[in-house]
Give the backbone structure.
Amino acid sequence: MKSSSEIDTVSKRATKASGFSWGIAEEVGKNIKTLELFGIGGIENLNAYLHQLKDHKAEGPKEILKNNSPQGKSFCPFYTGTALIDAAEQVLELKTLKFDSIDYPILILPFINRLSYKIGRMIMVKIDEYEINLNLNQFISSNMDIQNKILESCKLFEINVLESKDAFKPETWEKLYKLSTDTFVEESERSKTTAAGAGLVDND
């Protein structure tokens, strides 16, 4: 079994050898390591994407808009992911963004997971029929199995910034809060004498 360090290093070097800058390659190395830790096929998707690049040049968005269309066939997941993180405040303001096509979209997920952490909001991503939740760089969950998938491209890639809200019902919170108040004890003469610092003898 390959270690996380090996996955990071080989992914980084392979990305650099495919024409990307060392800065992008460093990010990709960390991202592939993250995908593999989540049990998602980072290495499989990366290998397929880098070999596909021999046929066409990688393209990233010149700016992040509500609706984004590539000039060529499709967007590069690395350039697009980097652009989204750089435009974090704009993403938060737009809330919903669409991209007509992204190559190997699984490879962009760690970028968006970090974007989620940067803006402090959960993000839901739609990749055609897949719906994937990314939560503050902590976990990735999907409505369908993506662990063993190689997705070459997608017709629709949509980013939705979700509003922050409690995952529990208000009445559940009230019941729990009421239970917590049982720890509140009214101050008494006995508590005054037994509290921390009470009853100490001044030796000075």
In short: The helical segments are 4-17, 22-37, 42-52, 77-86, 88-94, 109-119, 170-180, 189-194. The chain has a mean pLDDT of 88. DSSP finds eight helices and six strands in the chain. The chain has one domain: 4-161.
